[in-house]
């Protein structure tokens, strides 16, 4: 069986838009897990979050032909170009601090499940 290789090369603006779109979903899922850590859907949510992270990490910028830098990935994906508490209005200061720790762990180890276990 042959697999089609998907070109994930994008213009910078398109990469930012894609990261923000997926980042908003990522933050919303984190909030659901934070508020309901024993919910039956946690494994599903974590799997989706890992898929979105893997997807944005495959993006190459047309201009530089390089993958997105970690700093840009943090700004565009992990914070969805904003503060996470503007995405999830119910996010309080404590949750925001925990999300920031979680995002930094994910940024460095790329593993959503382990990062969540370490902070929640």
Name the features.
single chain, 120 residues, mainly alpha, two-stranded parallel ribbon, 2 strands
Describe this entry's structure for a reader.
- With 120 residues, the chain is mainly α.
- It has helices at 12-35, 42-57, 70-78, 84-87, 93-109, 112-119, and strands at 9-10, 60-61.
- It has a two-stranded parallel ribbon.
- Helix 1 (12-35) packs across helix 3 (70-78) and helix 5 packs antiparallel against helix 6 (112-119).
- The longest helix is centred in the first third of the chain and has 24 residues, at 12-35.
- It is globular.
- It starts with 8 loop residues before the first strand and ends with a helix.
- The model has no long low-confidence stretch (mean pLDDT 93).
């Amino acid at each position: 069986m042959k697999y089609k290789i998907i070109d994930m090369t994008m213009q910078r603006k398109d990469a930012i838009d894609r990261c923000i779109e997926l980042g908003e979903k990522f933050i919303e899922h984190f909030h659901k897990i934070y508020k309901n850590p024993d919910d039956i859907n946690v494994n599903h949510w974590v799997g989706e979050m890992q898929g979105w992270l893997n997807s944005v990490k495959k993006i190459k910028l047309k201009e530089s032909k390089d993958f997105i830098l970690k700093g840009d990935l943090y700004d565009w994906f992990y914070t969805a170009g904003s503060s996470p508490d503007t995405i999830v209005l119910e996010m309080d200061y404590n949750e925001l601090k925990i999300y920031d720790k979680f995002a930094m762990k994910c940024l460095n180890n790329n593993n959503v499940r382990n990062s969540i276990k370490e902070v929640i």
